[in-house]
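Supplementary Text 2. Reproducibility record for the structural model of the 277-residue chain.

All settings were left at their defaults, and a single model was retained for analysis rather than an ensemble. We include the record here because the model underlies the residue-level annotations in Supplementary Table 4.
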Amino acid sequence: MPESREEAVSAYICATCGTQYPPSAEPPAECPICRDPRQYVGPQGQRWTTMEELAREHANRIEELEPGLLGIGTDPSFAIGQRALVADGVMWDCITLVDGSLDGRGVETIAISHPHYYAAMVEWAERLDARVLLHEADSEHVMRPHERVEFWSGERVRASHGVELVRLGGHFDGGTVALWNGALLSGDIVQVVPDRDWASFMWSYPNLIPLPASEIRRMRDVLETLDFDRVYGAWWDRVIPEDAKAKVLRSADRYLAALSGILAPGAGSSVGRAGDF
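Retained model, structure tokens:
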């Protein structure tokens, strides 16, 4: 018997960035998230998948990163490959594969750093009976509008009793970080680099487009007001486990030195402070 049109409807997922779109009989013509100059369409062109297809070869794993903080990510890696965090009733950032890993863990809010991690936020919210909290400056990048999506404005807001959101900007106008129990949950708004003693800041990571010095100075000024000693970035191994605030501020200074042309090879941490550039 032929499949009905209703049965053929799927919520298609961009295979490059992991963004899920509203249910439709055919995939969207393109993914605006990937067409944006901060992201990319791969050499094989625009590709789509579905939640059902994704679940056939992928599974989520969940780990305790420290008391009160869980990580959840997908194996093998899919799309951008970020993992999400869960603390004090908040799922921070989002992944695409939706399953029962977080059932019964008290998630009431999904808060997301920027549009590259919007992923399957609506389907997660439906499963967890949660709201999605996004900064209004990035509202145009929401590809699946829904009544569960709420927008906040300004510079700081509480996502729960223990999690505070701070607009840091940079990568996106509404780029957000979160504070929890002395830790900065940074996504890649503050990008922890591989040696974990430094961080970086970019307008586009895959396309290697830097942020201007004026924006880095502004971000540094905000970061200097925040209290944190650890940073959890967007991937399992991107963590600064100690002395994180000093390392992040030092990293901003190094970035500014590089933009000004005074960062010599081997300079390492021997750069001036932000006001010197």
